[in-house]
Amino acid sequence: MGIAKFGLLVVLIVSLAFLGCAQQESEKVPDKILIGGTLSLSGKYSKEGQMSLWGIQAAKKWVNEVYGGVNVGGKKVKIDFKYYDDESKKEAVQSLVERLITSDKAMFLLAPYSSGLTLAGAPIADKHGVLYMSHGGASDRIFEQGYTYVVQTLSPASEYQTPFLDMIKSIDPSAKKVAFIYEDSEFSKAVIAGAKKHAEELGFEIVIDKTYPPNPTDLTPLLSEVKAAQPDVILGGGHFADGQLLASQMADLKLDAKAISILVAPALPKFYEALGPKAEGICGPGQWEVGVKYSPEAAKKLGIDYFGPTQEEFLALFQEFAGKDVMPSYHAAEAAAAVLAYVKAIETANSLDTEKVRNAMNDLHFMTFFGEWKIDPKTGKQIGHKMVIFQWQGGEKRIVWPPAAANSEPYYPIPTWDEKAAGKLAKK
Amino acid sequence: MPFFDQLAGNLIYGAILGSVYGLSTMGLSLIFGVLRIVNVGHGPFIMLGAFTAFWMFTLFGLAPVASIPLALVLGLALGFVVFFAVIKRLINAPELSTLLATFAIGIFLEETAKFVWGPDHRGFSWDIGNVNLGITLIPYAKILAFISSIIIAYLLYTWFQKTKLGAAVRAVVEDSEGAAACGINVGRIYALSFAIGIGLTVASGVLITLFVPVGINPYMGHEYTLKAFVIAVLGGLASPWGAFYAGFIFGLIENGSYTLLGLIPGVEPFSLTRFVAFTLLLVILLLKPTGLLGGESK
């Protein structure tokens, strides 16, 4: 090898090394942090997708304008959000996640709404080693696939009904008999599996554990059986229509219980509109509701940090995007919380490196207006956030549990169907 | 005797539900019997009836029972419109055309309902008390559904058997060419039968809200369409009376089998009731391919 050639090689190696350094330098101080995501802005999840978008926009505005940007590498860096409409379709999610990573160079990703769509994008993000935060996928199954970079901001399905049981236990330790009646579908089965385990731990006696097929038109046979078992507590439901049917037919048979919690259906105002006073006292689990009391003070009491806007600030920011009369659903809150969790984790890691941010998340425990945030380091599943339990009281949906979030006392035992027919409300 | 109490209670509810199923299927059978058209858009007409009851109750406080004649008239009118706009052109068309057309009408009705009323699940509360039979409680609204469906079915039967027009319809069912040769205006009979079929279906939507006053939404018809087809086949497709009896039997089996299946340990009875009902359908069809009241097979 000639000296000239050798010299050239040395120059090449040295310049490459410098180039690498320069690259590292510029990674440390980018102009903006690009978060990417797919949102269902059309198709069957368009309502939820639109809510998520408004929530994300509100959080982004708070981070950039109120908070002044993300503190990373001694600089305040603004965040940017790039998204595509996935049309509520799995195939679209997969190609769009790929596109966000490879062509848009998104540094962090937000998953779409629903467990199914979240599951569709997860393997792609994980393969590319990009963090993928679920803010609308509750299924526990997402976090049982061995993914490293998939983390969760909302409570998993198995946690949906556990606070309700805690609530009963703390109000009335003598309540023993619990009945589970629920739809034979993946989501409700995951919810009830978690609830059953918890009920056994708390010492409840499970007197009925029965499913019904999706889209039932009559639940009377099942409910007659439940009535004969005289449960203290009834838990059940699946989707909206069957939850409504469940409550309506319990009233027909005068199947009384001290407390009733139904999935999904009671969360919507249409539930009360359809059932009227029959809905009084019925509880349901929710990820979040307007009026929950997660605040800097509540965080202080728990000895953890509070991060992000207060609920009032969030409402104001949200309505800048959604319009004055629109109230945020939990879909907006959980999507906003996912953005805030990224910011908090980046600041803790003081880096934009995926590995470092993911590691920082393992030890992160803080509160936003959406509630606590803490993940299981191994699976990425959310273990800090607690479901809230609401109850229909005097025609209003009030948050009754956990005490840190509640704006009303739980009404227990609930009025019987006869009392409700006579006009009694579940209100003190 | 909790077991027998539950079984008896479920059979009573099964009979009530069965009568509603039966009435909702009669329209389907009548249309098939006379026009030889399978109305795959059957469910959406039921949905229209349910919404009629809902709006009449919510807007004007009209008791759902009072909505039955209204729904019948609305259904008749709609039936004539659909017949002259679409069905008339398809009387002798290949089966696939009529299937597609009725399917399209169904989708059109559903999407229009969704556009006008939104996709929400609605409901109302019409409490008029209940009767305590000791073994179970039955709301009067459900008993009214039961009585109404029997009255409507009986009136239709009388009309068919005792009036000239009814005889003409029967003649067309037997042999449309022969009927035409005897001077019966077959086209008119087709229109009338189709309209009556739709009228019955829309009215049965009202009865369904008497049984279950919640879950009223643009797509609610799907569940009833599937059951209506099973019941129609069970009753011998072309026979409205067969359909009514078959509805009863289907309701009794669906609800009654729940208690019996519950005796088997480790079984989820509810998920098996449909299995039992459909198995029974297969067995009946194996033994009597024309259905329960289907007469001789051709």
Mean pLDDT of chain A: 91
Question: Which strand-content bin applies to the residues of chain A?
Answer: 15-25%
Please estimate the helix content of chain A. Answer: 40-55%
CATH topology of the largest domain in chain A: Rossmann fold
How many structural domains can be distinguished in the coordinates of chain A? 2
By secondary-structure content and strand pairing, the structural class of chain A works out as: alpha/beta
What is the class of the largest domain in chain A in the CATH system?
Alpha Beta
- CATH architecture term of the largest domain in chain A: 3-Layer(aba) Sandwich
Arrangement of strands in the largest sheet of chain A: 2-3-1-4-5-6
CATH superfamily of the largest domain in chain A: Response regulator
Low-confidence residue ranges of chain A: 21-26
Q: Give the beta-strand count of chain B.
A: 2
Unreliable parts of chain B: none
How confident is the prediction overall: mean pLDDT of chain B? Answer: 89
Number of strands of chain A: 16
Overall morphology of chain A: elongated
Task: Please indicate the percent range of residues of chain B in DSSP E strands (runs of 2 or more).
Answer: under 5%
Description of the molecule:
The complex is a heterodimer of chains A (428) and B (298). Chain A has 2 domains: 28-155 and 291-373, Rossmann fold (3-Layer(aba) Sandwich); 159-286 and 387-421, 3-Layer(aba) Sandwich (Rossmann fold), CATH 3.40.50. Chain A has helices spanning 3-28, 46-66, 90-102, 115-128, 162-171, 186-201, 220-229, 240-253, 269-275, 296-302, 311-322, 330-349, 354-362, 417-421, and strands at residues 32-39, 70-72, 75-85, 108-110, 131-134, 150-152, 177-183, 205-212, 233-237, 259-263, 283-286, 305-306, 366-368, 371-373, 388-393, 396-401. In chain A, helix 2 (46-66) packs across helix 11 (311-322) and helix 7 (220-229) packs across helix 8. The longest helix of chain A is centred in the first third of the chain and has 26 residues, at 3-28. With 428 residues, chain A is α/β, with parallel strands linked by helices. In chain A, strands 2-3-1-4-5-6 form a 6-stranded mixed sheet, sandwiched between helices. A 4-stranded parallel sheet of chain A has the order 8-7-9-10, with helices on both faces. A 3-stranded antiparallel sheet of chain A has the order 11-15-16. Chain A is built from 14 helices and 16 strands. Chain B has 298 residues and is mainly α. Chain B has one domain (24-118, 139-287). Helices cover 72% and strands 2% of the residues of chain B. Chain B contains 11 helices and 2 strands; from the N terminus they run H-H-H-H-E-E-H-H-H-H-H-H-H. In chain B, a hairpin with a 4-residue loop joins strand 1 and strand 2. In chain B, helix 1 (2-35) runs antiparallel to helix 10 (240-261) and helix 2 packs across helix 9. The model of chain B has no long low-confidence stretch (mean pLDDT 89). Chains A and B meet through strand 8, helix 7, helix 8 and helix 9 of A and helix 1, helix 9, helix 10 and helix 11 of B.
